Amino acid sequence: MDDSDESELDVPAEVHTVCQYCGGGGMVADPKLAIIGGAPRTVDNGRPCPHCETVGHFPGIVPPV
Ligand SMILES: [Zn+2]
Questions:
Q1: Looking at residues 9-25, what average pLDDT do you find?
Q2: How far does the centroid of ligand 1 lie from the alpha carbon of residue 3, in Å?
Q3: 65 in a domain, yes or no?
Q4: What is the pLDDT of residues 20-43, one digit of tens each?
Q5: In a domain, 11, yes or no
Q6: Which of 12, 22, 40, 41 is most buried by its number of CB atoms within 10 A?
Q7: Would residue 7 be called left, alpha or beta, if left means φ above 0 and alpha means ψ between -120 and 50 degrees?
Q8: What is the reported pLDDT for 10?
Q9: Within a domain: residue 20?
Q10: Is there a domain that residue 3 lies in?
Q11: Which domain of life is it from (predicted)?
Q12: Residue 52: which domain range?
C-alpha cells in the first residue's frame, strides 16, 4: 500500500506559505547605482521584506498576489 519511498518533497507538518516577495529569505534585493570613489557601481545591501516583515513566510495558505 505504501510504496512511495521516493518522497523528494519534504512536506512540513505545519502548513505555511513562503513569501512570494522575498522567497522566504526575509530580505529582498535592493540594488542601487552608487558613485563610490568617482566610479559608478552597483550596491546591493538588501532590505527587509516589506511584505512579510522579514519573517519569510505566512502561516496557513496565502494565495499569490
Ligand atoms: Zn517576504
A1: 80
A2: 37
A3: no
A4: 889 999 999 889 999 989 999 999
A5: no
A6: 22
A7: beta
A8: 67
A9: yes
A10: no
A11: Bacteria
A12: 16-59
39 C-alpha vs ligand 1 centroid, how far in Å? Answer: 32
Q: How far apart are alpha carbons 4 and 38 in whole angstroms?
A: 60
40 CA distance to ligand 1 middle (Å):
29
Evaluate the CA torsion angle 20, 51, 65, 30 in order and state its sign.
Answer: negative
How many angstroms separate the alpha carbon of residue 62 from the centre of ligand 1? 12
Q: What is the pTM of this model?
A: 0.54
Q: Which residues surround ligand 1, an ion (CB under 5 A)?
A: 19, 21-22, 49, 51-52
User: What is the whole-number distance in angstroms between the Cα of residue 26 and the centre of ligand 1?
Assistant: 5
Q: How far is the CA of 9 from the centre of ligand 1 (A)?
A: 22
Q: What percent of the chain has pLDDT over 70?
A: 74
Domain count along the chain: 1
Q: What is the pLDDT of residue 33?
A: 93
